[in-house]
Structure formats: structure tokens, C-alpha cells
Design brief:
- This protein is an all-alpha fold and 210 residues long.
- It has one domain.
- Helix content is 79%, strand content 0%.
- The protein contains eight helices and no strands.
- α6 runs antiparallel to α7 and α7 packs antiparallel against α8.
- Pfam families: PAP2.
Length: 210
């Protein structure tokens, strides 16, 4: 569990760093990183990225989660289903609270999409990281193939980049979202492993008495 504690600490410290988005250092980072990302814009790529960015949309994530949870419940995978549902419900709820608390306005100009609401932290990055990474983790428990974890990691990363590319977020919004989303993933993974270990121990003790 030590590695999970270290990862959780890094996530929290990273989020705290980007909370100070009004400081000169973070503003300089935002301006520089945003300028580089926007420099890749062209007509063909714009259409592709606009389509891709909806992978992190609340409706898409909600639909994927509901279908996945129903499937897990049908196979009596109660713990997996409950935790997968939590990966979206809790992270989405906290994102709303954080956005209301910080009230950071979205970038002005250079938008390919129009979005309502506040900017910090990015909901797509935060909820997308929590859901896609934990989904990959659960799938990896059944089918231990490294490419599953790679997809679960790369998908939120490009999703975050796409939000800066379309002009609706600052890079610091995305990195803050990644940090909290990763923290949620770590907590859910620890809960899953703890319950699994306890369940196996109870089963072993039962078999011993029999």
C-alpha cells in the first residue's frame, strides 16, 4: 500500500500547486503551454479533436457507466459495480463543489466550442481520469494485459489535451483535474484491493474450518 500512499500524496500536492493559478509562474505556464497546443490547429485536426473531446462529456461518461454497472450487477459483481459508479458520482459531485468554490472563468477567445460554467478544475479531465483509469484497472484484474492500463492512462491524457485545444480550459485546469481524478482512482483501487483481500481471507478461514 506504500506506493498508493506516495501516489496519493503526489496527486494532492500537485492539485495544491495549481490552486495558485493566479500566480505569475502558473500564468506563465498556462500561456506558454496553451500557445504551443493551439499552434497545432488546422481544419482537419479541429474536426477530429472536437469529436474526440465529447469522450469526456458527462452524458457519454454517464451512459458508459450505467451500461457497465448494469453488466457487472448482472454477473453479481457487486463491489466492482458500486465502485465504478462511485468513480463518476463522487468525482462529478466534488468537481461541481470545487468549481463553485474557485469560480475561475474559462479562457476568452480562440474557442472552437462554447461551454458554460467555471473552468477550474476541468470536469472532463477529473471525471474522465477517475472513470477511465478505474475501468481499466478493473478490466486488468480480469485480463492482466498491459495495453489495457495503457489505454486507461492515455485516453484521459489526450482528453485533457483536447479541452485545451478547443479553447475551453487552461492547462492548469487540466492538470488539476488529472490530479484529483488520479487521487479518486487511487482511493478506489485501495478500497477494491482491501475488500478483495478480506474476502479471500474469510473464504480461506471458512475452508480451514470445513
Amino acid at each position: 500500500m506504500k506506493k498508493y500512499n506516495v501516489l496519493l500524496s503526489v496527486c494532492i500536492m500537485s492539485f495544491i500547486l495549481f490552486v495558485f493559478y493566479d500566480t505569475r509562474i502558473v500564468r506563465a505556464f498556462d500561456d506558454g503551454a496553451r500557445e504551443i497546443i493551439l499552434s497545432f490547429r488546422n481544419e482537419a485536426l479541429n474536426e477530429l479533436v472536437i469529436a474526440f473531446t465529447y469522450v469526456g462529456d458527462a452524458k457519454v461518461l454517464g451512459a458508459l457507466c450505467i451500461f457497465s454497472v448494469i453488466g457487472l450487477f448482472l454477473f453479481r459483481e457487486w463491489l466492482r459495480g458500486i465502485l465504478l459508479l462511485a468513480s463518476i458520482a463522487l468525482s462529478y459531485g466534488l468537481n461541481l463543489v470545487l468549481k463553485s468554490a474557485f469560480e475561475r472563468e474559462r479562457p476568452l477567445g480562440n474557442r472552437l466550442l462554447e461551454e458554460d460554467g467555471f473552468s477550474f478544475p476541468s470536469g472532463n479531465a477529473m471525471v474522465g481520469t477517475s472513470f477511465y483509469l478505474f475501468s481499466a484497472f478493473l478490466l486488468y484484474q480480469k485480463y492482466p494485459k498491459p495495453w489495457i492500463l495503457w489505454i486507461g492512462t492515455i485516453l484521459p491524457f489526450f482528453l485533457g489535451l483536447s479541452r485545451v485545444y478547443v479553447g475551453v480550459h487552461y492547462p492548469s485546469d487540466i492538470l488539476a483535474g488529472f490530479s484529483i481524478g488520479m487521487a479518486f482512482f487511487v482511493c478506489l483501487a485501495v478500497i477494491y484491493k482491501t475488500f478483495n483481500a478480506n474476502s479471500r481471507e474469510m473464504q480461506n478461514n471458512k475452508n480451514t474450518y470445513l
